């Protein structure tokens, strides 16, 4: 155990572990030092200089986020010297920021705005630098808008893209006055390796990186007399939406959310969880079929390990970075897209509405889903399968706009059909959830018995560990699966694209022999998605994760293959997993992309 | 403090061909002895920051790790400074000898000379000297090699941690400190990074002893210093002078008789007006005096025909471009200072705006991440304070 | 294999494929091609297994690692204070007249690019300039004209 270091902050005695920063020590005694470039998910940058504090006996101020404590330090976080310097730094940042706050998408949610208001940045600021520069707005991407005139160069986005996700789509370019956040050769985000994961959007303190919003389009559709607007909600939205509406992290708000969606005027309020269950059936069967082809038929064209395909950030990542492994990605569409193609075919027929009149909206914890819905492959219904994708944040905004007091809403139930789901579908929202859901089903399909874990909780694949491995030994399978007798099904779960890269490199180097890999682009899985409420931090992800598993444990049905609506859709429409209709509507293919 | 008579010296550039003898003699000493010699000589870094060299080597020698580095900082970019170029072209073997002693002392097997891109023309002759030097090392049995790493036109890479970043294939952005280079420098390994001139001085200390070196200069500022003299002078060039002289004496010897100000320490140094020549002493900042100036050895002389507004404008233009851009006070502050003096000069802002800019410069000094941003205030404040009337419309 | 791909591969063979080799490789490309093209950067990123954006971000940081095409001879005139004091502007005017370009431009034949740069470390001999790697000091308009003539002659002899 390391020694404790004793210091005083604003005259309050603090004793902390060696290596603690002044900022962390101050938080321990509930002193808030303002920060901008600091983010709990990211390495220390120390470049905004907002968090400067004064150390007794030292002429220069210290960056509290980067400076470790030392014995006997006497720190002042609010001396006149600190206040004056801090205010000037905020003024400087405002001077290079297009401060048209009332017209900004982040108005009221901007960290710079908050600080500027706290420090009363008045009329006598510095010269406005924005008109003197050529600053562009990149809005070519269906997911993300990058507005350089709002950027304060804190580099949170660059560190997110580089370290958290290891994509490197964003970089710092040029130096001095020309220094800016840029993609390769300043190309639009749409053309580069950006996976649209939106982790940068989630971390941008200002309006420099935002999701492209489709609120108005959705409002028009809702108010269109002829249109039947179908909405689906992803598993991770129900455990995070409350945060954006004034509730604490970790609240399950499924019922209130359904109420709110009805109040907003959506005609059918349905659940992506339904197609999550369907995904498990399709993907699980695909895995078993692949195993059979590899292990029994020796078919070299079939690739193992198979990876999941529900995270569109991950899919675009592998298309750019490991295109030689595209055949390893499950061809099953993501739950959102399965839902989309069924909404305009099967569901339209069922409710007797022309597909042409259906507007399909999804609410996702994700910005990459906007891109996914826009992919040319995603039109198997003959229309754009999902018309508009909203993030959790956008839904919260709609609810606010409609004047709904979310907290006081009654709990409501999803519509049927395509509103029923199992606990296995809910956990899609957490890292390891797809794996757990798949194993609950696949094991039972193969052996006829429940997966041998206490209360179906496959704990080895749960939790925030970066890369998790689990092996399930198959014994006494049903005769049809006898080739799997004694086979140890090796699985791997990774979340965050930097971990995905590690896993894929291990696969490439032949260091691992997994059968099935689950990868989610975002840290923590969808619950930590780029479209989730801001802020997202390790502690908040943990709370959302607990909520997800709580929701699973409360569900009467815990296994995808027991979802009655899923059984019904196979009987009525799809006939069998991986069947002809499935291939037409529920599966897709991938494209190799450039590596910049 | 006594003001010494200005004494021109010829230690550094004296062409001595006894490297082998000096290295053999030095290697016969223990590490403690060498460190004690360096510490007692009072040698401080000649790049401008003035960290005690002996202490730096000692700290690096105490780190326990598999690999360490010694880097010679030849990224001389400070406006008005050209001494390192001269040292590397005339007595590079002295620099290499200093590196070799340091390498053996701290346990480094690899050394680099980070040569600024503007000096690439020196590379061929330098490589020849290095080759010869490697043969000498083989002869005396020291497992040590020196390579040249070429910069590519970025002033900030002279900042030691930015230099490491640059060598690691990144943008030259200064790091947070701690950790310091002697703990985690190049490739996160303990690294001694010394200015060219500093290393050349260590050779003199090894050869003539610490006492001889210490005899030169004044309290806190020991030894001699190579000065780059430019501007309004009939005799621009490189001069080795003893520390501790008054600026008046310097001006008497070097200026054209009409000196109005001297910029000491380059664009990031201080501007001293005529009325303060007499009481300004050139040396490192000591505890007792506010009059001495830290200096990397750049002395730019301005006569009365010069507009100090133009001088400041030129400096600020330089900083606006050469700031790495990562920290707010430096990136935005430099732009605001430049635009601010332009606005006052044009009459777009009242002269009282200069007070706001002075406050800004002070804020930059106490909040910027590295020496670049911190020292912009030096020239800004000293010029605006002393030549305010030239700044106003 | 394209020429640039070959060049990058050769440089990577020479300097190694760790990230520490990035600057030497980029410098090697500039020596050969005067600038680092988009294709060259993609190749460097591939060889060193780093992001292409990182290569771009690093290259644009350094004033000598040009990302836009420049002439065969890049003239960099020092604009820092003492060169300024000793007539840098006159030198620029002369160069603009001789080369028939404005500052920042490249001659029509693609031979010369005229740029300004920060301190060249020749302050005692200002005004100073670099033509590619070679410094020229104590410049006067006459001297500048002669230097350019010399380069033009050299070019004529090459062709």
TrEMBL record, chain A:
Pfam (any one): Fer2_4
**Domain 4Fe-4S His(Cys)3-ligated-type span(s) in chain numbering:** 81-120
Record domain 4Fe-4S ferredoxin-type: where = 142-172, 186-214
Q: Where is the 2Fe-2S ferredoxin-type domain?
A: 3-81
Keyword Iron-sulfur on this protein? Answer: yes
Q: Does the keyword Transcription regulation apply?
A: no
| UniProt-listed SMART domains | Fe_hyd_SSU (SM00902), NADH-G_4Fe-4S_3 (SM00929)
Write out the entry's keywords from A to Z.
4Fe-4S, Iron, Iron-sulfur, Metal-binding
InterPro entries named among the record's database cross-references: 2Fe-2S_ferredoxin-like_sf, 2Fe-2S_ferredoxin-type, 4Fe4S_Fe-S-bd, 4Fe4S_Fe_S_CS, Cytosolic_Fe-S_CAF, Fe_hydrogenase, Fe_hydrogenase_lsu_C, Fe_hydrogenase_ssu
Under what name is this protein listed?
[FeFe] hydrogenase, group A
What species was this sequence derived from? Carboxylicivirga linearis
Upper lineage is: Bacteria, Pseudomonadati, Bacteroidota, Bacteroidia, Marinilabiliales
TrEMBL record, chain B:
Where do the segments described as Disordered lie?
167-188
Keyword entries, A-Z? 4Fe-4S, Iron, Iron-sulfur, Metal-binding
Coiled coil where?
none
Record has Cell inner membrane as a keyword: no
Q: Basic and acidic residues composition bias: which ranges? A: 167-176
Q: Which residues form the NADH-ubiquinone oxidoreductase 51kDa subunit iron-sulphur binding domain?
A: 309-354
- Which InterPro entries does the UniProt record give? NADH-UbQ_OxRdtase_51kDa_CS, Nuo51_FMN-bd, Nuo51_FMN-bd_sf, Nuop51_4Fe4S-bd, Nuop51_4Fe4S-bd_sf
| Presence of the UniProt keyword Iron in the record | yes
For this chain, the family text in UniProt reads:
Belongs to the complex I 51 kDa subunit family.
PANTHER family cross-referenced by the UniProt entry: NADH-QUINONE OXIDOREDUCTASE SUBUNIT F
Protein name per the record: NADH-quinone oxidoreductase subunit E
UniProtKB/TrEMBL annotation, chain C:
Q: Which UniProt keywords apply?
A: 2Fe-2S, Iron, Iron-sulfur, Metal-binding, Oxidoreductase
What's the short name of a Pfam family annotated to this entry? 2Fe-2S_thioredx
Q: What EC number(s) does the entry state?
A: 1.6.5.11
Keyword Iron present in the record's keywords: the answer is: yes
Query: Which molecular function terms from Gene Ontology are attached?
Result: oxidoreductase activity
Co-factor(s):
[2Fe-2S] cluster
According to its UniProt record, this protein's enzyme class is oxidoreductase
Matching entries from InterPro entries are given as:
NuoE-like, NuoE_dom, NuoE_N, Thioredoxin-like_sf
Quote the NCBIfam families the UniProt record gives: PRK07539.1-2
Q: Of which family is this protein a member?
A: Belongs to the complex I 24 kDa subunit family.
Q: What is this protein called?
A: NADH-quinone oxidoreductase subunit NuoE
Q: Which organism is it from?
A: Carboxylicivirga linearis
